[in-house]
Structure to design on (192 residues):
């Protein structure tokens, strides 16, 4: 079996830039959904549920870049560039997106790391979904004061896990397969 080339080439850089631009716009638009859900859930005494139900949407660029490029570093760079794109458009969080994008990118990268960068299938999708859920929840535990919500964290964590599974798992896999079928991306098998 030929050794996989993990270097980034011009084609890879262009794809990462496109992922960053496209997801930057998607992330910017997701803020409207986040705000609407926050308005709905706050009277129900679940003010952070909007954050958790949209978190998977805000973490899609990492897994998408990972599945498209199949190289170490791609999930982190994809997520970070998406967050940078969102900040440049001028969303409500501004430059703080760069910190969140770095945390989310590390979380997504960790999922692919745990599979040895060999599973760009459902195992890889589930792995990155779980690591991204855990790492981003831990980040919000300290950054957004989730440690003060007590039992409500069961609802928040469950909502986040479902959001991550749908957006970072199911939706990313469907998009990746559509790109394969349309011959935009070539299928490279690295699973043993």
């Amino acid at each position: 079996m030929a050794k996989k080339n993990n270097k980034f080439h011009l084609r890879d850089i262009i794809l990462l830039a496109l992922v960053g631009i496209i997801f930057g716009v998607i992330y910017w638009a997701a803020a409207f959904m986040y705000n609407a859900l926050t308005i709905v859930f706050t009277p129900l005494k679940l003010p952070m549920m909007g954050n958790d139900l949209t978190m998977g949407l805000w973490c899609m660029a990492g897994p998408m870049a990972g599945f498209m490029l199949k190289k170490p570093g791609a999930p982190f760079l994809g997520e970070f560039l998406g967050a940078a794109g969102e900040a440049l458009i001028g969303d409500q969080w501004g430059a703080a997106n760069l910190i969140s994008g770095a945390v989310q990118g590390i979380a997504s990268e960790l999922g692919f790391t745990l599979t040895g960068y060999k599973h760009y299938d459902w195992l890889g999708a589930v792995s990155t979904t779980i690591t991204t859920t855990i790492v981003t929840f831990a980040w919000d535990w300290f950054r957004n004061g989730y440690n003060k919500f007590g039992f409500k964290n069961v609802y928040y964590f469950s909502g986040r896990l479902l959001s991550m599974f749908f957006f970072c798992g199911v939706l990313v896999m469907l998009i990746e397969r559509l790109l394969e079928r349309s011959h935009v991306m070539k299928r490279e098998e690295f699973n043993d």
About this structure: Residues 19 and 78 are 6 Å apart (CA to CA). The radius of gyration is 16 Å. Helices lie at 10-41, 49-58, 61-69, 74-89, 96-114, 122-143, 152-181. The mean pLDDT is 92.
